[in-house]
């Protein structure tokens, strides 16, 4: 299980979750995405936010509170199921928090609920809210997980945020000793400005030496493609496939099909970024797991 987190807001947590999730599902992995953010943006990104599939977090809420197996929304894409987030996520976290203040046993209930259905999946991705929403969300996600992926923007403030993430990881390790930082993802990197990227990479390389890599795959800043993908509730590779199908503008004009909006041509580069990232994440996870197994034997 992988949790996608980083103290800061707007660093690409949800975009990474939904894009990597849909890509791995397409590559035949059985994938579950869990949205622990009451903004419910996973449903937006995957295009089911205004449908009756969006339960606002109700399934996870009742399963976690009553100690049952949650029933995810099946088949959001082939091989991809989702436990959505929403107002019920806030209610769940309030309950966990209130209960822990009273010395109750709800802490970790999200992890226990997810664990009940985990054997059905090859990969589970958990999206988390920015830490301003409260630590309890991130902690519940971390208790469930093996790996952490931390996206960040190549800015000093974002890099600083990693320190509080490191603190959190070490606190959670006393309860979940298996959790580790898998890697850092540079998100929203301006195109054609290698200098903007080099400095953060150097700093991260120093700070994370021997801990985790900064993936060489990065997610470029491509506003137009992101806007198209968001409006359509599609992942970048799904949008790129539509762009390829739409044909050149002059052909559509000739065929009388020019009325629809032209989709951003940059979808292809965004899709490529996510494909490289997905490959690197899977390779790194496999090699880490092999190394750990070798160490344990
Ligand atoms: N490749 C991209 N280029 C430019 N903007 C992007 C790109 N991908 C996503 N965005 C936009 O950046 C913003 C932040 O992305 P996202 O929602 O994934 O971050 P987040 O960390 O989940 O945010 P939050 O902390 O609010 O949950 C969104 O408005 C999104 O539409
Ligand atoms: Mg988000």
Supply the key terms.
binds magnesium ion; single chain; Rossmann fold; globular; alpha/beta; 297 residues; 51% helix; eight-stranded mixed beta sheet; binds adenosine-5'-triphosphate; 12 helices
CATH homologous superfamily designation: P-loop containing nucleotide triphosphate hydrolases
Strand content: 5-15%
Total number of strands: 8
The stretches of 5 or more residues where confidence is low (pLDDT under 50) are none
CATH topology: Rossmann fold
Across the major sheet, the strand order is: 3-4-2-5-1-6-7-8
Radius of gyration of CA atoms, rounded to a whole number: 20 Å
Going by CATH, the architecture would be 3-Layer(aba) Sandwich
| Ligand species | adenosine-5'-triphosphate, magnesium ion
Helical element count? 12
Describe the protein in words.
This protein has 297 residues and is α/β, with parallel strands linked by helices. 51% of the residues lie in helices and 13% in strands. It has a single domain, classed as P-loop containing nucleotide triphosphate hydrolases (Rossmann fold, 3-Layer(aba) Sandwich), CATH 3.40.50. It is built from 12 helices and 8 strands. The protein has an 8-stranded mixed beta sheet, with helices on both faces. The model has no long low-confidence stretch (mean pLDDT 90). Adenosine-5'-triphosphate binds next to helix 1, strand 8 and helix 9.
Task: Give a quick precis of the structure.
This protein has helices at residues 13-26, 41-45, 58-66, 87-101, 109-117, 135-144, 156-173, 194-207, 223-232, 236-246, 249-254, 267-296; strands at residues 2-4, 31-35, 73-77, 80-83, 123-127, 147-152, 180-189, 219-220.
